[in-house]
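Note to self: user wants both folds in one dump. Writing first protein now.
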Amino acid sequence: MSEDFFIKESDSHLATIVRLFALEGATKEVAVLANAESSVEQTDYDNYHRGTALYTLYLKVAIALYAQIENEIETIQQSISNKLNKAVAVEGHYYRNVEIAAKLSEDPHWREKAKSWLAGSHINNQGRVRSDNIASRISDGLLFRSLPEIHFYKALKSLGISFAPLPVFVKGGLTYKRIEPDFFIIKDGVMLVVEVDGDTVHIETPAEAHDRTTMLLHEGVKFERIKSSECDTYEKALESARKIVAIIEWHKASR
């Protein structure tokens, strides 16, 4: 296998190991690999044992994600490197290094935004504090886990609905429980949670979903699930949001 062909195959290498990490529940590695701009370069050559081409995998991630993993980057880099070289064993080729860096900002208004931040305009949705299901995308200063979620957020906002994206709900007592639904909507006295499904890496079973959401179900909160494919464009998300509004109106009328 030539060096050029090995580099062209690198995306398949990443697709393979992200599945393996998902099966292990390694959410930080999955978040990095799924959201990074990746590139591979041959950065060295070792003459040992008929010669080995040595490569570096470069992963550039959004600042929101970088900030959440900054203290663990060396561990994550080593974890990805180890997985690559175990799962993608190709004679004469070896991933020597993995380097994770933040994408450079090209925002011409960064000074104004920094001043606004100092004045108290911080990112404030609570979903950012959970470490085992990283929210790596930002829209309007709020964090989300996928582009379909952002489309659905914008659709709900355009309809003038009161809602909370990625809120944290905690139930104390003898058994502590914490959940972060994708969206919590309040309209006409109806409380409804919407989960945007379709993560191709981790799929929650119906039993797992029921166990996770019981604390809100018992309080009378309604639940609806929509596929990410129904929100992969703003237009589709707007149609889905209107369907959710119709469901809320049905719940209101049936009380």
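First done. Writing the second protein, which came from a different request thread.
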Amino acid sequence: MNIIDESGILALSTRLQRLSEQLRKDGALFYKSYGIDFEPKWFPVIYTLYHKEVLSVVEIANEIGYTHPSTISLLKELEKQKLIRSKKDKIDERKRLLQLTAKGQELIEQMKPVWDVMKQALSEIADNQNNLLQAINEAENKIVHQSFLQRALQLKSEEKQ
């Protein structure tokens, strides 16, 4: 066990990042094993547009839960790869509407069988005594009601009293 593992809850963010990086790395290698050149970081946008077809930048950011700048960065990469395209909204010229290109749609069709296998493998990983996915949902719901920062500041102010 290393010092990060030993630090327990204090390293929660670090350990979640470590887990995320391992899953992304393995995911990229698994896509590659099917001959698919795909970065797992693109998944939230591609998957969202596959289900919602046409969305604005703000709508995509809200759907995937990323900040506006992070979303813009992903969208630029995907446009460069010609997996998505944007057009101006006819009602609001300032708004960009995004959708999958034909190349993006073809990619989805290639990835569907891969996703089925990934779901099985990830289910095996998450299906443990504490059910990882359920625990993540519960933690995210708590953060929606009161963020980590709000909780820490509250504890700090209570400590001073």
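Dump finished. Worth passing along: Residues 102-126 form the longest helix (25 residues).
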